[in-house]
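Try this one yourself first.
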């Protein structure tokens, strides 16, 4: 009798091999999930530095649907009110619109009602660090 040694196929017989793959997948997903949670946490911490009172008066930010052309965006702004004062070079459907001071909330709500708009809000002032945590400048004690 001749015995032929079969090639080893580590996961061919199910059971333990499949369990090992499942455990590895869950472990990797959990690691990725915790990284995502850290990113969200960091973003939320930065967002806490912004207050509702800190925005550029007379300006709102509007993000139109990406399938619109710049001409479509211009037409929608003309129809709704305001004037485009800046447009993103990277995403031309994201614009800063000049509106009458004191009417920012009204215009934000009007733009949010439009089916062509993904998001709209006041042009908020963001600070990377709270003012008391900022690094000292040149000539200040501890600065260069």
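Now uncover the answer:
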């Amino acid at each position: 009798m001749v015995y032929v040694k079969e090639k080893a196929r580590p996961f061919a017989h199910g059971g333990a091999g499949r369990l090992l793959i499942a455990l590895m997948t869950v472990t990797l997903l959990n690691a990725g999930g915790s990284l995502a949670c850290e990113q969200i946490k960091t973003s939320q911490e930065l967002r806490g530095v912004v207050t509702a009172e800190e925005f550029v008066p007379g300006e709102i930010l509007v993000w139109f649907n990406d399938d619109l052309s710049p001409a479509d965006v211009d037409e929608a702004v003309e129809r709704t009110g305001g004037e485009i004062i800046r447009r993103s070079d990277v995403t031309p459907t994201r614009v800063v619109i000049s509106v009458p001071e004191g009417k920012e909330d009204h215009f934000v709500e009007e733009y949010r009602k439009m089916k062509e708009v993904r998001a709209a809000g006041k042009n908020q002032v963001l600070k990377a660090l709270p003012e008391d945590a900022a690094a000292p400048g040149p000539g200040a004690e501890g600065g260069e």
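Discussion: Residues 25-44 have pLDDT under 50 and may be disordered. Strands lie at 55-64, 83-87, 94-98, 117-124.
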